[in-house]
Amino acid sequence: MDIYDEILSSRLMLGTARYPSPEILRQAIIASGAEIVTVSLRRESAGERAGQKFWDLIRETGVKVLPNTAGCHSVREAVTTAEMALEVFGTKWIKLEVIGDADTLQPDLFGLVEATRILSEDGFQVLAYTTEDLVAADRLVEAGCRVLMPWGSPIGSARGLNNVYGLRAMRARFPELTLVVDAGIGVPSHAAQAMELGYDGVLLSSAVALAGDPVAMARAFKLSVEAGRLAYEAAPLQPRDMAEPSTPVLGRAVFA
Amino acid sequence: MRIILNGEPAEVNAATLAAALEELGYGEGPFATALNRDFVPAGERPETRLTEGDAIEIIAPMQGG
């Protein structure tokens, strides 16, 4: 998987939030095989220093970090958060989220395009959390984005791929672009389906963190992403309406 | 002077952002700062002067999805 000319062997990106404990997070990252994990920024109190402890844990795992702008509802908030993330994490990658709707956490595509343009011109490498809207995708590419991350379904909903047609159309429209399904993945079969559509990767968080056994689920997702990719590369059989005998009929004995 | 620190009222004697961070007990740790909603890079903190009522945001790494 190519993320701004960085070639990664794992096609699974993992969130780091909502795990039962830091140790289970650490084990889940290892079990998932993910080479990129998403991180965020929040207010830090002087005494607590929780950020330092979390950052130490992530660095020990040796994975790359992808900072997000989660919770930002305006272009200004998202741009400022990205600037702060660059200083703290030392990466030009930014998972750009500009949230437009409080119930569905649907991206504000208009704000997203504007923030992408500002950040790309400042040298950021934007991974845009978007929908499957092709017009918005065109605008994002024009604004400098080279990694599009359409939602499967609303964040944390575990509903899988709500619009398979839309995701397939996006893959067909942008054959050269890195496309990652982000959000809404609930179970490994959802991830496999995204990979079978030809997506370059999947990004998921709650599906692993909130599973009864996050470490086992991380491994299940690792396997499903690999299986889905392998299936895509093997050119799957296309569906048809009527049956087609799988056993050759030529030479069949006739008893009637 | 009175400032707003991460959304809460606070009192500092320091005249600059860098001095205020030291006074408030923030060490070398990984964090970034904003003043009145604008990002202030680490290198500019010593020259960034504070005035009454300024809103300082100090943010650090945390778990994300």
From TrEMBL, chain A:
Residues annotated as the enzyme's active site: 95 (schiff-base intermediate with dxp)
GO BP terms, alphabetized: thiamine diphosphate biosynthetic process
Domain Thiazole synthase ThiG: 3-248
Catalyzed reaction equations: [ThiS sulfur-carrier protein]-C-terminal-Gly-aminoethanethioate + 2-iminoacetate + 1-deoxy-D-xylulose 5-phosphate = [ThiS sulfur-carrier protein]-C-terminal Gly-Gly + 2-[(2R,5Z)-2-carboxy-4-methylthiazol-5(2H)-ylidene]ethyl phosphate + 2 H2O + H(+)
SUPFAM superfamilies named in the record: ThiG-like (SSF110399)
GO molecular function, one term: thiazole synthase activity
GO cellular component: cytoplasm
Quaternary state and interactors: Homotetramer. Forms heterodimers with either ThiH or ThiS.
Task of the protein: Catalyzes the rearrangement of 1-deoxy-D-xylulose 5-phosphate (DXP) to produce the thiazole phosphate moiety of thiamine. Sulfur is provided by the thiocarboxylate moiety of the carrier protein ThiS. In vitro, sulfur can be provided by H(2)S.
Record's protein name: Thiazole synthase
From TrEMBL, chain B:
Cited InterPro entries: Beta-grasp_dom_sf, Mopterin_synth/thiamin_S_b, Thi_S, ThiS/MoaD-like
SUPFAM superfamilies in alphabetical order: MoaD/ThiS
Pfam family, one: ThiS
The name this protein goes by in its record: Sulfur carrier protein ThiS
Gene name of this polypeptide: thiS
